[in-house]
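I have been asked to look over a protein record a colleague put together. What it holds is a sequence and that sequence's fold in token form. Please read both lines and tell me whether the tokens look consistent with the sequence. I do not need a full report, just your reasoning and any doubts. This is what I was given:
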Amino acid sequence: MKKLTGHLEDKHGKWYAAVNHYDTNGKRHVKWYSLDIESKRGNKRKAEEKLTELLRKLNAESNDLPENLTPAERERIRLSGMPADEYVIEWLEDHRRNISARTYEGYRQYVRGKIAPFFKSRGILLKDVSGDHLNLFYRLLFEEGLKGATIQRIHSILHLAFKVAVKRGIIPVNPCERADRPKAQPFIASYYNADEIRKLLEVSAGDELHLVILLTAYYGLRRSEVLGLKWSAVDFSEKKISIRHKILDVNGEPVGYDVMKTKSSYRTLPLIPLIEEELKKQLELKEQMKKVFKNGYCTDYDEYICTDALGKLYKPDYVTAHFACLLKNCGMRHIRFHELRHSCASLLLAKKVPMKMIQDWLGHSDIQTTSNIYSHLDAQSKQESADVIAAALES
């Protein structure tokens, strides 16, 4: 059996051990192990000592196994006996190449902030993780005050991690299949009616985010979609606007992506006359700002529609916070920025637009999503059903 070797790597402000493992063909694969040591000055020696101890332990475990085992079998046995907290961290680092930076950051917060600490505090090995362990974990998260939807996301991350372990033959079954999937509280969004939307568009007329608000209210866009709109997506001659780019917050900075949430998120919609007029005004304003600020104007984001006075992208979190302040200063009822999207849907429902058409307008991947979110708003159709049954029985 080839002796395992490794070295230190500084990642995310902490020391990691990069250990060389070998498959059945002798091909090297690097596995990452968290050493739980910050990579600040003076800690490298401690990390080196921990790396040495880790390699000694891994090599000892390999030597204790029967000689006739293949390298792949040895690796499976090693992994099944490793602490569950180390496995989920190792899995996430391997899975990182398959997901976006934003998704990875979200996973990392759950894995390091909730999942790994639970397993570590109880000394649970990967091979011993059970449905009962997970049910206890979910109950503790509920007691902490986490919402059902958040715990469902954590459950999904665990399901992915253990699915890989099953596929690789490390464990026989996925423990998530033997746990009770957390239940989420039904979400009922707030929304503005037509009069409130009109007032909002009126009071925001002089605000820097007026165009952002206008586009969101008319098209029901997600925050990432409205900030990601590019001039290339607007066809003034054909009177169309396409939703095919997004802006996400990555480590506090806005980053553009050409990959949307789902295939249904890519959609082309009619260019509403008022929106066309406002977009042309925005083009003129950008040219004016370039002349005023000259070299002080940022041209890096000229392809984007919604930029600030200096040509820079808006940070998603800034939009959310600024929108809340705008409503407060104008004495309007508080709703979240995302609930402008719900408001758009509610207006379409009120005008008896079919749910399927609303699904296409909003870019939902399936109509069930649309129905689940907005069925409580469809009061008019329910009233019509009530009138029909009442008239039938009374006659």
